[in-house]
Amino acid sequence: MARDRFSPGKGPTQRQLRIGELIRRRLAEVLARGEVHDSDLNTLSITVGEVRMSPDLKVATAFVMPLGGKGLDVALAALARNQGELRHHIGGVLSTKYTPQLRFRPDETFDQIDATRRMFSDPTVQRDIAAPSDGDDPEGPESR
After folding, report:
1. Quick one: where's region Disordered (predicted)?
2. CB 3.0-4.6 Å disulfide test: which of 5, 9, 51, 96 passes with 20?
């Protein structure tokens, strides 16, 4: 029976993960060195958090965030404007038939981390974490 890699609900393949990480590293390197000929892009310090690949490896979605989170719209516009040049830079490190099309999206990981921290610092949640549940009797079932 053949493995169905493209069915929804399954995670990315090892190849998708490997290619995505190669692209993430190369994008981060190019942006850090200022190798793109765009003054708007070179004045920003942009973090590339993750790159997700489509199943056919023809589209790479990069999740980016400027340092401090300020200037996100400017950064996304500059990255989209320079997609061709960035594609050329990543094409050299890939051993694939096609260099994927690049898409840029805001990286919301930090917002999710902050929301989780706020949730865990809530007094009600702290109380629930500290209180033992019914099945967690510290003295064991013999004490009942």
Report:
1. 121-144
2. 51
